[in-house]
Structures are given as structure tokens and as C-alpha cells.
């Protein structure tokens, strides 16, 4: 009898101990570490969504756009809010007072964009290993990866247009890494890096008719490629300002860049990256416009 009672007691303790371990050894449901994020396709998508949010450095922006446009720092535009207090309009900018260029208003063109590039690199380093259960999920994951390439290219485009040659990072940093060994790349290398990312995005992204609104598409990636190639044809980037490889192309000519920009733009117009059309007609409006003409044109635009 004692042996039976002893066996029951031991068994009870084993069950209780195992049960307690199961209860206490639970994953948090209000926070996720890097390992858990890339074990679930939905969490992976959510992580990518935050990369979209931070295209403009913080989540108070819409793709880097605010009411304070960068053109407001020139004679092109004047923001209707607080212009008399803008340091760049008053001519009092200094290292200690950068105004919009030193705070959240224009920080989508600052080095802070590297925080989002870091996020994208973490995504790309882990996304290939996310488990999928069927071909549909495999296709979704491939699309997410193509979107990540677009986001990284988008961030690098903004930085390149502000600073020229950049520090090119395509993988997560490791603790203890020697950051003093990392240097800025030339303008040629920076453009090639961006174009390579955009080519991967174009190849892997669906067209706008196959993608939910607000996410990158094949046409968006192609348009960004055409834009940065066209921008790169400017005289200032071809020796008119300096021959420094950080700000001046050495191997890319203006003619070849313009030809590439025209080629990809024509592909967009020909519907190779999705169907797009102009809003309204292309005919010149009558002059002068009557009230009836204005109303008719308004109806076409609605």
C-alpha cells in the first residue's frame, strides 16, 4: 500500500512539475522578438508594414510627405504656417539652429533614414526562412521581399539626392562590428546599388491592379527607377560642381543615364508595368473658359 501511495505521489509531482513548466513557459503576446516575428507570415507582413511607416523616418508622415514641403526652403513655395520664424528664410541657420533641417519636418532627407534601412536589412536577412504552408503563401512572401527592396531603394534615393555617394548597407550590423572600416561609396556605386534593388522590386512586384492600395507595385518601382536615372543626368553630378567621386559620376555618362530613364519611362507608358492613363482628356481647353466650360471640365475630372 505504501509503495502504491509512493508511486502515486511521485507521478503527481511529475505531472505537476510538467504542468507548471508548460504554464509558465509561454511566449509573450504583447511583444515579439526577432525570432518570433520571422516564424509567422502574418507577423512578417506586420514588420514590413512598419518599414512602410518609417519611409519618412517616423510614423507621423505619409511616405515622407508633410505640409512643410522641401520646396518651401526655396523661392518656389512658401508655407502658410509660421514662415516668419523659419531660420532658412530669416538667414539665421547655423550648426546650432538648423530649423526644419534639424527636426522632424525635413528629417526624411537626413541620415536618420538609416534607421529604416536597418529595419529593411533585418527583414531581408530573415524573410527567406519564414515558413509557408502552400504556394499561395510562398507567392505572398516573395511579394513581401520585393516590397522590401523597393522600400530600401526609396530611402536610398532620398539620401542620394541630398548627399551624393552613400554608405551602402545590405545586411544587418553585428555587435562588435568595426564601424570605422565602413566608408561612403562613390556616386556611381550608389546609383548602381539603387538600380539593382529596383530591378529586383520590378521583377517581384505585382501590378497595381493585383496589389492592395498603398503598397509598392511594379509600376511604382519602374517610375522610381526612371526618376532617379533622370535626376542623375543633371550637370552638377557630371563635373559642373566638383569632380569628387562622392558627388560626381565617373563612369556613367549623362547620355547613357538619360537613355535608360527614357527606356523605362516608355515601358511604363506602353503598359509593360501595369495599365495607367491620364485623368481627363488631353485636348487644350477653349479660351476664354465660360462657366459652362469650367463645369464641364470639372465633371470630367470627377
UniProtKB/TrEMBL annotation:
Gene3D superfamilies per UniProt: 1.25.40.390
Coiled coil regions, renumbered to chain: none
Transmembrane segment boundaries: none
Pfam families given in the database record: SusD-like_3
Every SusD-like N-terminal domain range: 111-228
SUPFAM superfamilies for this protein: TPR-like
Source superkingdom: Bacteria
Name of the protein: SusD-like N-terminal domain-containing protein
UniProt source species: Draconibacterium orientale
Amino acid at each position: 500500500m505504501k509503495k502504491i501511495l509512493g508511486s502515486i505521489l511521485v507521478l503527481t509531482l511529475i505531472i505537476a512539475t510538467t504542468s507548471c513548466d508548460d504554464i509558465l513557459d509561454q511566449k509573450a503576446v504583447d511583444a515579439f522578438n526577432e525570432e518570433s516575428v520571422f516564424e509567422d507570415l502574418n507577423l512578417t507582413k506586420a514588420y514590413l508594414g512598419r518599414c512602410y511607416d518609417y519611409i519618412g523616418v517616423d510614423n507621423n508622415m505619409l511616405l515622407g510627405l508633410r505640409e512643410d514641403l522641401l520646396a518651401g526652403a526655396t523661392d518656389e513655395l512658401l508655407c502658410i504656417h509660421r514662415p516668419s520664424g523659419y531660420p532658412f528664410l530669416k538667414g539665421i541657420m547655423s550648426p546650432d539652429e538648423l530649423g526644419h533641417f534639424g527636426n522632424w519636418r525635413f528629417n526624411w532627407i537626413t541620415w536618420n533614414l538609416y534607421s529604416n534601412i536597418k529595419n529593411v536589412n533585418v527583414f531581408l536577412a530573415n524573410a527567406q526562412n519564414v515558413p509557408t504552408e502552400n504556394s499561395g503563401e510562398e507567392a505572398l512572401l516573395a511579394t513581401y521581399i520585393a516590397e522590401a527592396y523597393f522600400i530600401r531603394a526609396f530611402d536610398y534615393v532620398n539620401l542620394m539626392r541630398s548627399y551624393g555617394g552613400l554608405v551602402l548597407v545590405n545586411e544587418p550590423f553585428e555587435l562588435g562590428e568595426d564601424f570605422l572600416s565602413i566608408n561612403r561609396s562613390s556616386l556611381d556605386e550608389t546609383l548602381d546599388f539603387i538600380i539593382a534593388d529596383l530591378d529586383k522590386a520590378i521583377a517581384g512586384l505585382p501590378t497595381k491592379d493585383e496589389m492592395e492600395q498603398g503598397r509598392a507595385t511594379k509600376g511604382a518601382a519602374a517610375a522610381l527607377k526612371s526618376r532617379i536615372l533622370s535626376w542623375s543626368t543633371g550637370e552638377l553630378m557630371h563635373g559642373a560642381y566638383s569632380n569628387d567621386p562622392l558627388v560626381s559620376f565617373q563612369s556613367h555618362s549623362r547620355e547613357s543615364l538619360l537613355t535608360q530613364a527614357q527606356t523605362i519611362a516608355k515601358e511604363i507608358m506602353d503598359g509593360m508595368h501595369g495599365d495607367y492613363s491620364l485623368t481627363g482628356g488631353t485636348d487644350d481647353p477653349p479660351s476664354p473658359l465660360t462657366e459652362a466650360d469650367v463645369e464641364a471640365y470639372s465633371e470630367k475630372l470627377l
